[in-house]
Every structure is written in C-alpha cells, then in structure tokens.
Amino acid sequence: MPTKVIRSKADLAINGAPPAFDQPLHVGRPNIGNREAFLQRVNKILDNQWLTNNGPMVQEFEQRIAAHLGVKHCVAMCNGTIALEIAIRALGLEGEVIIPSWTFVATAHALYWQGITPVFADIDPATHNLDPAAVRRMITPRTTGIIGVHLWGRAAPIDELQAIADERGLKLMFDAAHAFGSTYKGQTIGRFGACEVLSFHATKSFNTFEGGAVVTNDDELAEAMRLMRNFGFSGYDNVIHPGTNGKMIEVCAAMGLTNLSSHAKVVNNNMHNHAVYMEMLTSVSGISVLNYDSAEYNSHQYVVIEVDTSCAATRDQIIAALQAENVLARKYFWPGAHRMTPYRDLFPHAGLMLSNTERVAERVVILPSGMAMQDEATATVCQILRIVTGS
Ligand code: T4K
C-alpha cells in the first residue's frame, strides 16, 4: 500500500520526501499457487523418499506440461540455461549461431559456454524481436543455426525465421523463456523450430522455484536430451551418451504442478495490471507502454515502457526516481548482451550492426506487475511517472 499522496515534485523521495512504499515493489515477485496443495505434494515426496532422478512428480509434471502446450515431449530440467545448453548440444550447433543481443545474457552464454560464437542480429524496434532481414545479413559460411527469442512472451517472427533456416540449411530453435502459454497465429508456443526452451525461474509468470524444460515434437531429439540431462545413463551402469546433470528435482515439479492450476489466474491479473498501466500512462508525455497483440495469448508478465528522447526526464532519471520510492523498476536487458563481458571485448564493433537494439536499450523500463500488485500501487507508480516527467 502506498504511504503518501504525490502532488508535486516536492513529494518525491528523490527530493527528500519519504518513499511511497514501505516494502519494495519487485518486477519479479514470484506468483505462488495454493500453499496447502504444494505442502501436500511435498509431504508425498518426503513419504516416498524419492527426491530426484526422474521421480514420479517430475514425470507427472512433464506429462501435464506437454498436454498443456499440445506438444509430444517435455524434457524438464533444473533451469532454463542448462535447458538451452542441452538443446544446443543435442541439435549439434557449432561454429556461429545467430541470436538477438536484446535478450537475457543467458541466451548468448549458453552458446559461448560450449565454444560456439553467438552472432548478434538486430531487432524490430516495434516488437523487440529479431528482424529477419537483419538475421539474413549476419549469415556466414560458419553459421549453423538461429535461436529466436520470444521476448516479453511475444512470439518471434517464426515463419520468416523458419523460411531463412530452410533456405540456408540452418537449424532453428527458440528461447521461449518468457513465453509459457503464449501463442503464435493461435498455436501454442512449444511446437515451433526443432525445439523450444522454457524457463520456470521464480520471477517468471509460471515458476518451479528454479526450473526449465525443452519442449519438442521430435522423438529422437527428446530422447537425446533425456540422456544428456542424466549423464547419458540408459539404465544402471550403462552410459550410452556424453551428458551432464540437468535434472529437475521433485520439489520443483511439485511447485510446478501446484502453480499450473493458478497460472490462468496469474495471467488474468497481469492483463488487468497491464491495462491499468496502459490507461493511466496515456496522458504521460514521452512515455509509451509496449502493447501486445490481443489476438495472441501472452502472460503479460512484463510491463515494458519506453522513454522517448522528447520526455522531460531521461530513462535513468526515471529509474532513479522510482527506485527512491521503493519501486524496483529494471532496465532489462540494458545494455544488450553485445555490451556485456565477454562479448564487448570479442566484438567491440558489434553495435554498428545493432542500431535498433542500442536505441531500445536506452529507452526501456520494466515496471512491477504480478499477483502482489494492487491497483492502488499501480496508480501510485503511474503518478510518480507523471510528476517526474512533468506531465
Ligand atoms: N532466456 C531468457 C530470455 C531469460 O529471460 C532467461 C532468464 C533465461 C534464458 C534463463 O533462464 P533461467 O536459467 O534463469 O531459468 C532474472 C531471472 O533470474 C532470470 O531467470 C530471468 N531470465 C531474468 C529476466 O530475470 P535477475 O538477475 O534480474 O534476477 P533478480 O534476482 O534481480 O530478481 C529480479 C526481481 O525479482 C528483483 O526485484 C527481486 C525479485 N525476486 C527475485 C527472486 C529470485 C523476488 O521477489 N523473489 C525471488 O525469489 O534475473
């Protein structure tokens, strides 16, 4: 609950007033489903004395997720980054792989960690997703694949990327970390490309504490990934594949099974928050809210605003003002992966090909949403923005 009324700049915490919120408002406050149902599942796990290694809870979780998304296989993993690494390896990517720089750095690291060069392609500034024409420009004889990212839960231009991949003999997979339940042309994300990778991190609309999965309709690929996430074991004492430890544990699957029941409620709540932000921020000059296509399903987990150069306050002044009020807004994914270590040293001139990425990176602010956000708090965040920008 806000602690004060903000009428003028003198009421702002950056000008010495007390903060608007006693407790911080987070962009990634976890959505936690029915506590009793979760604890019952945990008791079952403890009674079973089966804590990990493809236990019954993980198997049920995989079946439920596959059915929910309408795909043949869900291979659950310990987190989204390991799921990306395993998918990349199972697909046999090598050399160079084209990705956006405008993504969480894990997309790039999952390649680099395995000796593969991430090559950054620019985005469409309207959607923040890969621009297919920019992808074409970055293809070289060393390119073996493309990883599209469904940023903010909005599907990447899947058909165009698939056409490029088919034409140039490249593999295509998707980082769907933000896109649990999202649709593309009415079809649920999970079935596109060779495979799609989900994150169930605590901060996502649907969480398993930590967790991730690769979903695919490809039987062979799913089988290879199942082996790879468990050291390559096929039964006791029989290792038939190189592998690592990417397993999801039972208690995470219990959290996922519990949260699956309330995900629709979370999404409805996020949609409401997003609509309130949209309405209240229309009168704030120099700020626009990224909108999502109403014909497609999207968790609306991310409330993304862009601060125009015409705005009376800079993006960083806005972030500082919000943080002083205990509103922990974020600059995801500033400054872009290409300006983070090790990529900024490896490719010091990458920015020359990434003008949209660089422009968007200077404009974006992510605002708090999720089940913990009340309308009164949203209204106060919008009022702070109105006063800071002199609207
Ligand atoms: N690809 C993409 C496109 C991704 O966005 C991500 C992850 C991945 C791949 C990799 O998936 P994972 O390996 O993570 O499964 C957070 C998350 O850690 C990360 O999962 C997520 N993307 C990224 C967008 O956001 P940080 O560094 O911003 O997290 P942190 O600790 O600053 O938390 C964010 C906010 O949430 C803070 O205000 C605190 C609050 N919070 C956080 C946690 C963990 C809570 O209130 N409770 C909590 O339990 O990366």
End-to-end Cα distance, whole Å, is 24 Å
Unreliable runs, pLDDT <50, ≥5 residues?
Answer: none
Small-molecule binders: ligand T4K
What gyration radius follows from the Cα positions, in whole Å? Answer: 22 Å
Strand order of the main beta sheet, please?
2-10-9-6-5-3-4
Strand-residue fraction?
5-15%
Describe this structure in words.
The protein is 36% helix and 14% strand. It has twelve helices and 14 strands. The chain has helices at residues 35-48, 56-69, 80-91, 106-112, 132-137, 158-168, 219-228, 250-281, 315-324, 343-346, 355-361, 375-388; strands at residues 25-26, 73-77, 96-100, 117-121, 143-149, 171-175, 183-184, 187-188, 196-199, 212-216, 287-289, 303-307, 327-328, 364-367. Strands 2-10-9-6-5-3-4 form a seven-stranded mixed sheet, sandwiched between helices. Strands 11-12-14 form a three-stranded antiparallel sheet, covered by helices on one side. Strand 5, helix 6 and strand 6 (171-175) form a beta-alpha-beta unit. Bound molecules: ligand T4K. Ligand T4K binds next to helix 3 and helix 4.
